[in-house]
Amino acid sequence: MAFHILHTLKHGAELPPEVVNYMYSSGAFVILKDFPEGHEFGIDYKSWTVGPKFMGLKMIPAGVHFVYCSVKGAPRIGFFHNFKSEEIVVKKWDKQKETFSDEVISDEEASPTCFLFVKYHKVSYRNLRFVVNRFRLNLKNIDSTLGPYPFENYRSWYALTDFINGQTVERLNPLKGKISAQAELVSMETCLMENEELNATVGCSNSVDREHPVRTRFVDQQGLPIMKIRDGYEIRFLAIPQLNANENRVGIDYTDRLERVIRQLDGDWKQLLAEVQFAFACFLIGQVSLMSRIFVKLGK
Does residue 14 sit within a domain? Predict the structure, then answer.
């Protein structure tokens, strides 16, 4: 059965009824609470404009997937997740911040008729297991509000991300767990002012007063403000080793730099290809401008 399902999914063929039943019982689920009607929600290569009853997706094949959404006029925001068989991932939409909320669930939301938002680091394993089990018991009741995974696009997604695995996601995902099409940029002086310990020494100020007669500004050679991605929101790509000035080099041969990068990955060249696929998926599906993030890094 497993081989038949994998062969069917990879080749984009229509799923027979017995495979559909198996995928429903063994596939993963994404539950999204409070996402507004008329906005975009998607997974991998497929996105939809959701209706009033939308609560999430079902029958998601095990493996790495990219789940994302956006409200009109706002950039896409999403997350990579390595789904396990029968796993239930629950998120809650914060309407004010227009992002996935990190709030702890309330007692009222924990009632059997409501849908919950759970963060692994904010609830105990016992409570998490209780919540997931409650969802599992209630899946049949909310089945009509869950859309099926778009299997017709799975072959394309698999071809795009076949080297990406759970290790890749854990290594590259931003610490905040969210990937946004619009980078969370802050100026260098803002970073210093937010760091109270460091600012006590430097004394940065964004305003002019008696204690700070000059407004603090950090600029580059062109006079532009030095920007960086806010901590926790940066995709953690491997740093490319710098060249030594005294190295004898012919032409543009950078083989040695490639070998150094692979050594950082303990010789696992597949993880390097996975990182390239991860970056391209962020650009293609997440609509992330990777070049702007590279320029920000170079400006550090």
Answer: yes
